Amino acid sequence: MPELSRFGGMVIYMLFYDTRQHNKPHVHVFYGDYEAAIGIDGELLAGSIPRKQLKIIVGWLAFHEEEVYAAWNKAVQGEHFEKIPPMK
User: Of 24, 23, 2, whose CA–CA distance to 11 is shortest?
Assistant: First the structure.
């Protein structure tokens, strides 16, 4: 799984060619024992993650929306994308 970003104990990934299961642009987030798929629009699509971390991810996604969509467009075509820095 190619890593998109990492901060606050969370690791955010995107999968190549990942359009079948959730049918919308999304990221995969790992936090400790938690794993979730979160739409770029902030919708929790699958899995679970603590509320505080979900709010942080949703804020990060909103702040980096253009970059995340650009990464998504590359990933679904099997192309590598640039990492995105955490919010400061």
Answer: 2
Any domain includes 83: no
Domain that holds residue 45: 3-75
Pairing of strands 10-13, 3-7: antiparallel
pLDDT digits (tens, 9 = 90+) for 13-48: 999 887 777 678 999 999 999 999 999 999 999 999
Is 67 a member of any domain? yes
Strand order in the sheet with 34-39: 3-7, 10-13, 26-31, 34-39, 44-48
Domain annotation covers residue 27? yes
Work out the angle at residue 82's Cα, subtended by the Cα atoms of residues 27 and 73, and round it to the nearest 5 degrees: 55
pTM given for the model = 0.90
Sign of CA dihedral 26, 12, 72, 86: positive
Q: State the total domains in the chain.
A: 1
Q: With DSSP H G I counted as helix, E B as strand and the rest as coil, what are the percentages for the chain, rounded to 5?
A: 25, 30, 45
